[in-house]
Amino acid sequence: MNMTRPVYTADTAADGVEQAIRVLEGRWKLLILFRLFGGNLLRFSELELTLPGISQKMLIQQLRQLETDGIVRRIDHQEVPPKVEYGLTEWGQALCPALDSLLKWAEQRP
Fold this sequence. Notes:
The radius of gyration is 16 Å and the shape is globular. The longest helix is centred in the first third of the chain and has 15 residues, at 10-24. It is mainly alpha-helical. It is built from six helices and three strands. A hairpin with a 7-residue loop joins strand 2 and strand 3 (84-88). The chain is 55% helix and 11% strand.
């Protein structure tokens, strides 16, 4: 399978980065991601406890958006009582080095 990287122009590169940033926009999305990095699987209630100030409605909305965008996966264990966990997809986990690089870049701000 030949996976050649596209050739970007200044416009297409800027558009691609803007699209990536839009996927991560939102007050809570990065906080959710950092709790799930490293293969962590967390139940909804566990995520909620680690995010003081988030409403259940907002957490549900943010998780659904991340799931729709292919970053977070919802694992329904089909048990009684219900057990649902959230984790990162492989693509979502691949964000970790990119965000780490962004953090290192931000640390260098004069």
